[in-house]
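Q: Could you predict the 3D structure of HTH hxlR-type domain-containing protein?
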Amino acid sequence: MTAPTPLPRIGDAYDPDCPTRHVLDRIGDKWAVLVMLTLKDGPVRFNDLRRRIGAISQKMLSQTLKSLERDGLVSRAAYATVPVTVEYRLTAMAQGLIGILDQITRWAEGHVGAIMDARRAHDAREVEAA
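A: Sure. Here are the predicted structure tokens for HTH hxlR-type domain-containing protein:
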């Protein structure tokens, strides 16, 4: 009988080995967020996901979906059709994250103008300083 694997230390998100940090990295990934927001209204097929998200390569979408599935945030269902139909949907755990992602999206939409203004001002100062 083998000894159980010790649980990782939790609670220091600044520690690169902290599991919390790994979760924050996952939900902070732009493609993961866009995939989850696209799936919030129900199951979506791969090519529909790619069309809706736009500017994501097939490879990146596939990698993102596999990572989200591995983390328990997305489930994949394959149906015996010709060709095989595959749908992706959010898990119950991911549904709890959608409200937070919606809030972040609304914040971004409400502040995008100020952020773009700040960028332009910063870039202008950089040019003047050069």
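Q: Anything worth pointing out?
A: The helical segments are 19-28, 30-39, 46-53, 58-70, 92-129.
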